[in-house]
Amino acid sequence: MKYTYYGHSCFEFDFNGTKVLLDPFVTYNPLAKSLKAEDLSPDYIFLTHGHEDHVADLVTAQKSKDAVVVSIVETAAWVRKQGIAKDKVIEFNLGGTVHLPFGKVKMVFAAHSNSTPDGQYGGFPVGYVFFVDGKTIYVSGDTALTMEMKLLERFNIDYAFLPIGGHYTMDAEDAVIAAQFVKCQNIIGTHFDSFPPIKIDHDATEKLFSEADLTLTLPEIGETYSL
C-alpha cells in the first residue's frame, strides 16, 4: 500500500490497485501549480467536510473514473446537487462503518466547522479510520485536539494523518498530543504551508516530534510514499 500527496489535505491512497482520494483540492492550491485536477483518477473520494479547500476539485476528480463519493449525510446532499448520480454517493454518519471492496472504513469525530461552498450547512466535520489488509490508518480531517481521540487507541493505529498548520486546525504541539492520545508512532502531516496563516517551520516541527519519540513525515507535493 502507498499514498501520493497532492498538497494541503489532499492525498490518494493506493490500496493494492484501488485508488482512494481524500479532500480533492489542487487547482487553487498555490503550492500545487504543477498538478492538474484532470489527472486525478480515483475509484473512491472521501470528504472530511465541505469547505472549499477540501472539495474544490471534487467534480473534476469524480468525472475521471466515475468515482464513488463518500461523506457525512449533509455534505453528501451537496455532492448530489453537483450533478453526481445518487448511486455514486455513499452517505453515512458518525460512528458508522462502511464495507467496501478494499476494506472497511469507520467515520469518527472531528472538532471543526462545516459548510459547503454555497454556504449551506454541511453536517459535522469528520475523520475516518481505514482498515485495509491488516493495517489501520487514521485520517483526522481538519480538527482541533479533542479528548474524543482517546477512543481511537483501541484500533492499534499504524499511521495517522494529522493537521499541523494551526490557525484553522490544531498545530504541531497539539498534533503531538493527538498522536499520543491515539497511540500512533507514525504521523503524516497535513494542512500546512498552503497559505500564510498555516505556514510552519519545518525544522522546528520535525524536532518537536522527534523529541516526543514520534516519526513525522512532512510529505512533498507530488511524491509517493509506502505504508
From TrEMBL:
InterPro entries: Metallo-B-lactamas (IPR001279), RibonucZ/Hydroxyglut_hydro (IPR036866), UPF0173_UPF0282_UlaG_hydrolase (IPR050114)
Domain (Metallo-beta-lactamase) ranges: 7-191
Origin: domain of life: Bacteria
GO molecular function annotations of the record: hydrolase activity
Keywords annotated in UniProt: Hydrolase
The UniProt record lists the keyword Signal: no
PANTHER family cross-referenced by the UniProt entry: UPF0173 METAL-DEPENDENT HYDROLASE MJ1163, UPF0173 METAL-DEPENDENT HYDROLASE MJ1163-RELATED
Name of the protein in its database record: Metal-dependent hydrolase
Gene source species: Sphingobacterium kyonggiense
Top-level taxonomy: Bacteria, Pseudomonadati, Bacteroidota, Sphingobacteriia, Sphingobacteriales
